[in-house]
């Protein structure tokens, strides 16, 4: 972020003095302190615009409590992999819970701590934001700007759907990766000879198993229900492979493998923004709460990518939300769903030049 905005001030807070020293040395933070340093409170009380809580889930409450004690009125976001606990804690502990916009970058590393940090970690990645009907459009706009500024793409997801969705694409895969390593470990001898045979396939599908057990145990228990359902389902899926094998059913085996191969091949390696053809969607915001959450979630569901957000204040109590979309997703579906939700929307093509001018 500081590469994008070298004039910005970023105060890092970490329990590890080595981490704080390295963060400043690398230029990722302008200053970095221990949580109990009085300068932390001073900084939060003196106009800090945004707080990003990127600790393990177990430490989040402590920071919500501090922000409450310091009557912090700015925007708060987080990076936690699960939202069940964080949402309940925000509601209970934060003085202004509507200023909390949950976030979750869908990128990371199995390397624990600051050693795993890279300036380009989020380039081409998706970053979930979970605004709700109480989220101010300006708060979402600022977070959107920061996240897209570091090269990620924002996906708006409802708070209710978040944990269920990430259980399937992140938490079940982690348990499976750990299970694959456990299987091989059981068969490896003292010299670990079997692991020397492990090539790309094993390594590709188990990299994440090297992640922090403490962090992942926190994630697993915070998302126990959805993870439990996902594990039941994966048992059933593995059972279908096993059954095809037992019954010599080659046709089913081919069908199961083909369906997975097609779906996997269709996954892009990374998201590349396409900004040749831009489309502006203008949505009047008067007399309605939560327009930004509703409209951006509908856009994400339709696979549309919002490149930037503007809020045009027409009069004191009326404004228009303007979303600039890149040439992706199903605009027909977006339009139909926005109209179905009761919005009176207008679409107009925009050239990248015009957009630069608007900015
Ligand atoms: N690892 C990933 O790939 C990944 C991806 C997306 C989101 N997340 C989420 O982001 C959060 C951080 O994960 P991570 O992988 O960066 O963890 P990490 O263990 O690599 O880093 C956590 C940092 O928090 C510090 N810390 C721990 N307790 C603290 C406290 N009480 N006060 C201040 N600092 C404290 C640690 O010293 C460390 O520097 C977690 O909630 C995790 O679920 C992780
Ligand atoms: O790529 C990795 O190493 C990750 O661990 C990233 C990963 C994942 O893909 O499951 C891990 C945890 C998150 O909450 C989000 C992303």
From TrEMBL:
The keyword Oxidoreductase applies. PROSITE patterns: ACT (PS51671), PDH_ADH (PS51176). It is an enzyme of class 1 (oxidoreductase). It comes from the Bacteria. Keywords: Amino-acid biosynthesis, Aromatic amino acid biosynthesis, NAD, Oxidoreductase, Signal, Tyrosine biosynthesis. Pathway: Amino-acid biosynthesis; L-tyrosine biosynthesis; (4-hydroxyphenyl)pyruvate from prephenate (NAD(+) route): step 1/1. It catalyses: prephenate + NAD(+) = 3-(4-hydroxyphenyl)pyruvate + CO2 + NADH. Residues 1-275 form the Prephenate/arogenate dehydrogenase domain. Its EC number is 1.3.1.12. Transmembrane segments: none annotated. Residues 280-353 form the ACT domain. It holds the Pfam family PDH_N. Belongs to the prephenate/arogenate dehydrogenase family. This is Prephenate dehydrogenase. It comes from Raoultibacter massiliensis.
């Amino acid at each position: 972020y500081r590469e994008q905005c070298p004039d910005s001030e970023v105060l890092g807070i970490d329990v590890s003095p080595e981490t704080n020293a390295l963060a400043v040395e690398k230029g990722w933070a302008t200053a970095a302190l221990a949580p109990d340093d009085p300068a932390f409170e001073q900084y939060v009380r003196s106009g800090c615009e945004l707080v990003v809580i990127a600790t393990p889930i177990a430490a989040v409450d402590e920071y919500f409590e501090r922000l409450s004690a310091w009557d912090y009125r700015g925007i708060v976001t987080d990076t936690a992999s699960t939202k069940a606990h964080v949402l309940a804690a925000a509601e209970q502990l934060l003085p202004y819970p509507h200023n909390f916009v949950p976030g979750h970058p869908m990128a990371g590393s199995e390397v624990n701590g600051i050693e795993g940090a890279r300036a380009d970690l989020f380039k081409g990645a998706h970053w979930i934001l979970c605004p709700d009907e109480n989220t101010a459009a300006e708060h979402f706009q600022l977070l959107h700007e920061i996240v897209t500024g570091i090269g990620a793409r924002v996906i708006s997801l409802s708070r209710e759907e978040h944990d269920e969705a990430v259980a399937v694409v992140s938490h079940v895969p982690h348990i499976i990766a750990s299970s694959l390593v456990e299987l091989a470990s059981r068969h490896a001898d003292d010299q670990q000879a079997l692991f020397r045979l492990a090539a790309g396939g094993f390594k590709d599908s188990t990299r994440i198993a090297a992640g922090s057990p403490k962090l992942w145990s926190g994630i697993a228990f915070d998302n126990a229900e959805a993870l439990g359902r996902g594990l039941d389902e994966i048992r059933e899926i593995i059972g279908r492979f096993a059954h095809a094998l037992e019954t010599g059913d080659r046709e089913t085996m081919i069908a199961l493998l083909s369906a997975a191969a097609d779906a996997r091949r269709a996954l892009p390696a990374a998201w590349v923004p396409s900004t040749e053809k831009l489309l502006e969607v203008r949505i009047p915001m008067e007399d309605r709460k939560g327009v930004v959450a509703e409209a951006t979630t509908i856009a994400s569901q339709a696979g549309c990518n919002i490149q930037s957000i503007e809020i045009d204040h027409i009069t004191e109590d009326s404004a228009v939300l303007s979303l600039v979309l890149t040439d992706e997703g199903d605009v027909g579906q977006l339009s139909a769903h926005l109209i179905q939700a009761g919005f009176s929307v207008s679409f107009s093509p925009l050239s990248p030049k015009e957009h630069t001018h608007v900015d």
